[in-house]
Amino acid sequence: MAINANHPFEELDGRRCAVVERNVSPERVEFIRYILEGNGYTVVVTPSPPPKAAAAPKPVEGEEPPPPAPEPPATFTVGVTDVTFNAVNAIFGRLLRSPEGRVVTLAYWQQKEEVPSDGVPYFQKPQP
Prior knowledge:
The protein is α+β, with helices and mostly antiparallel strands. Helices cover 18% and strands 19% of the residues. Strands 1-2-4-3 form a four-stranded antiparallel beta sheet, covered by helices on one side. The longest helix is centred in the first third of the chain and has 13 residues.
């Protein structure tokens, strides 16, 4: 358990890991793995537990039971074995590099940009 919500860590696949992101899609897992492994981190990915479903109400006599709820999409929890890792500190501290050698920016990490560009600080970029 983390001291606070800003630095979570838990056991993933039997290894103590700092949690990078939870409930991410398979495409996002590959993007995060690509960046973190390029920076020398050992990435651990495990399936996220399914969300808790509310109990379905009992059908009234004579009514047709409601259709079953759709299955939630498969999501994953991504962590790194370095328990001192914190994604926010790594991004704003300019500690992560893209495979091309550029500094990973917040917009690139959030996949809003195709290529990280740190010529203009994030707080001076125009908001969409």
